[in-house]
Amino acid sequence: MTRFPIEEFSSLKTPFYFYDLRLLERTVKEIRRTARDPRFKVHYAIKANANPGILRTIQAAGFGVDCVSGWEIEAAIEAGFRGDRIVFAGVGKSDPEIRSALEADIECFNVESEPELRVISEIAAEMGKTARVAIRVNPNIDAHTHAYITTGLAENKFGINLEQLDSIIGLAKSLPAIDLKGLHFHIGSQITETEPFVMLCETINRLQDEYEQKGVKFSLINVGGGLGIDYAHPERHPIPDFEAYFTTFHNHLRLRPDQELHFELGRSVVAQCGSLITRVLYIKEGTSKRFAIVDAGMSDLIRPALYSAHHKIENISNPNGELHHYDVVGPICESSDRFGESETLPEVKRGDLLALRSAGAYGEIMASRYNCRPFPHSYFSEN
Ligand SMILES: Cc1ncc(COP(=O)(O)O)c(C=O)c1O
Ligand SMILES: N[C@@H](CCCC[NH3+])C(=O)O
Fold first, then answer.
1. Residue 1 falls within a domain, yes or no?
2. Which residue numbers delimit the Orn/DAP/Arg decarboxylase 2 N-terminal domain (predicted)?
3. 265 in ligand 1 pocket by Cβ < 6 Å?
4. pTM
5. Nearest atom, ligand 1, residue 225 CA
6. Which of 123, 151, 216, 278 is most buried, by the most CB atoms less than 10 A from its CB?
């Protein structure tokens, strides 16, 4: 259970992200234990959190890394990830980003369109290199998640639709500087049911059978990330838990003996180890509401404003006080700058510290400077 060192916090400038490194270490250990099939390779999706302190722990655990920009590749290399453990996805890779990825001899480009594949081939040929690629397939599977974070439906911008797959595979095999390794999938994020992953396995099985009949073999399958967490219970494992998640692929995906299976987990690795700590500035009594106005805003944690997401809120200064209802809001000039509506919290006073839980993923990394506010700091547990 995360313990908040409240005495240490009292001298720190708020708001800040607090990371429980022990929890992160336990999580990566659990992933290593449950992804025990030697053909399974876990790449951390760095977009979830690129704080160097977080990256060091994940790199030390032997994970690869999944990047979606040249800057993420730079951050990964700086944190000690080797080029040959970096995969690079994204619908809009620029020429300089492709060039620097080739310079770093990355493990694989996850290619999202024919024009992109041609450009990678041209740049690689110019540089005298061969680019290893996987084709990102859009399998048209409903991940049953928020519309903004589903990625595997035909209407989404990601990947190659099934009808166009033959053509791009033919192209990949014909281009001189391309080494086609396999297929990549990522159907969405914050998926809390097993069924979409089972459907993904079935689609992959069908595609593999079809392509093998056509004489095309893949050495790599990448099923992306997407494993969801329980925002209502920050102390719990992801849902489904890691054991169930990896077992689903073990049981349903007919992986060939000489194939590698890549996973790109982001949220489930880092979400629960992080909390945004904020100080209460004012209690404002409205006519129908009582507002707890805090010094963190949507610039520090945008998920509530962007996806109507809810992060559990705890009054860590007064955990046992009498319960009241509050709208917990930030200082930013937007009505959506609100972390909770009618939250039941132990009595909140000016100066109290609140913890917004499960904020380790897509929290600090999505912070902005809106209203000219500074970026939030970060602070790590020592024990
Ligand atoms: C291609 C790709 N891989 C991996 C991830 C990581 O997803 P998650 O944080 O849901 O595990 C994402 C983000 O949704 C993604 O777009
Ligand atoms: N940023 C999103 C998830 C998108 C993941 C990236 N494809 C979130 O906070 O839930």
1. no
2. 25-271
3. yes
4. 0.96
5. 11
6. 278
- ipTM for the complex shown: 0.98
d(C-alpha 141, C-alpha 20), whole Å: 35
Looking at residue 65, its amino acid is V
Residue 331 structure tokens: 């200082």
Which range marks the domain in which residue 297 is found?
6-15+272-380
The answer on 226 and 82 residing in a single domain is yes
Could you tell me the CA-to-CA distances from 211 to 83, 105, 201 in Å, in that order?
A: 29, 28, 15
Share of the chain above pLDDT 90, in %: 91
Among 249, 270, 291, residue at a domain's last position: 270
> What's 150's DSSP letter?
B
264 is in an annotated binding site: yes
Distance CA 341, CA 272 (A): 22
Residues enclosing ligand 2, CB less than 6 A?
Answer: 47, 149, 189-190, 303, 362
Look up residue 59 and give its amino acid.
Q
Give dist(CA 79, CA 49) in Å, integer.
13
Using the 3D structure, point to which of 253, 270, 287 is the last residue of a domain: 270
Same domain, 90 and 192: yes
Question: How far is ligand 2, taken at its centre, from the CA of residue 6, in Å?
Answer: 30
Of 9, 78, 49, 85, the closest CA to residue 272 belongs to: 49
- Per residue in 314-368, pLDDT tens? 999 999 999 999 999 999 999 999 999 999 999 999 999 999 999 999 999 999 9
Residue 344, burial from CB neighbour count under 10 angstroms (0-12, 13-18, 19+): exposed
Residue 176 in tokens: 């001189």
CATH code at 339? 2.40.37.10
Quick count: other Cβ atoms within 10 Å of Cβ 56? 13
The Cα-based distances of 257 to 41, 120, 197, 198, 211 in angstroms read 14, 30, 21, 20, 17
First to last CA, the chain: 12
DSSP state of 57: H
Structurally, how many domains does the chain consist of?
2
